[in-house]
Amino acid sequence: MTTIPALPDFYNDLDLSFTKAWDLIEPGASKRSSPAHTPVVGSVDAAGLSQLRVMVLREADRNTRRLRFHTDSRSAKIEDFAEDDRVSILMYDATEKLQLRLFGTVSVQTEGAAVDAAWASSTTFARRCYLAEKAPGIGSDLPTSGLPAWIEGRQPLEEQLGEARANFAILWCDITEMEWLYLANAGHRRARWTWDGSLQSWSGRWLVP
Ligand SMILES: Cc1cc2nc3c(=O)[nH]c(=O)nc-3n(C[C@H](O)[C@H](O)[C@H](O)COP(=O)(O)O)c2cc1C
User: Fold this and answer.
1) Does residue 120's CB lie within 6 angstroms of at least one atom of ligand 1?
2) Quick check: 156 and 136 in contact, CB under 8 A?
3) How far is the CA of 18 from the centre of ligand 1 (A)?
4) Atom of ligand 1 at shortest distance to CA of 137?
5) Ligand 1 mean position to 39 CA, how many Å?
6) Ligand 1: distance of its center to the CA of 177 in Å?
7) What's the mean pLDDT in 29-50?
8) What distance in Å separates the CA atoms of residue 159 and residue 164, rounded to the nearest whole number?
9) pLDDT, tens digit, for every residue of 180-205?
10) pLDDT interval class at 1 (50, 70, 90)
11) Is the pLDDT of residue 168 over 80?
12) What does R_g of the chain's alpha carbons equal in angstroms?
């Protein structure tokens, strides 16, 4: 006879499921091995098509419902979000058997203390990308990193990154919906939580998986 593994305490508990979701998301910002470290972030382009890309999660906070990502201010997604600020974010933790879909809106920040701090806390190697001479996604006749020749294959010094700062942006994602799917042999569980701005609280309900 096959034995079904013990079920986790959140299995039939909406509040514990919600807590478990954020317990997976939040450490993703610092834990490189976490699947939440590199979620898929979706925007809607001018043609109404969903545009998906992997991004590194830099910060997540359940109290503010905010996630932080870094990107090049010249990238196509910046234009997408200026036209339509809705964002969807997808994570799948195969060990935990948990899929999370987050929904919300994006604001882009290129100036201010938070941007200065995020810029300063990134490695010089990570910041080198922002030295690219042309916008990400621009066509090239030759294979290219986009970087100027003088820094190709080198780690920049702090003082060489000055002009790159202008291309650096934070994407703040304010989460207002979260959907959860937990896979279990005993029967899957699906739930959705919605942020109620007037009540300043989340309300959740189970869904048929
Ligand atoms: C593992 C991984 C991590 C990435 N992290 C980021 C990131 O933090 N920020 C970013 O803008 N692009 C990141 N990218 C590149 C994006 O997936 C995408 O190619 C790029 O942002 C251009 O997207 P866009 O043309 O839709 O703007 C990452 C790609 C991979 C594979």
Assistant:
1) no
2) no
3) 28
4) 25
5) 10
6) 23
7) 97
8) 10
9) 999 999 999 999 999 999 999 999 99
10) low
11) yes
12) 20
77 lines ligand 1 (CB under 6 A): yes
Average pLDDT, stretch 94-109?
A: 98
**CA of 54, closest atom in ligand 1:** 17
Query: Contact 208/152 with Cβ under 8 angstroms?
Result: no
- At residue 5 the predicted structure's pLDDT band, cuts being 50, 70 and 90, is confident
Q: What's the mean per-residue pLDDT of the chain? A: 96
Q: What is the mean pLDDT of residues 135-158?
A: 94
70 lines ligand 1 (CB under 6 A): yes
Please, what are the domains in the chain? 14-135+146-207 (2.30.110.10)
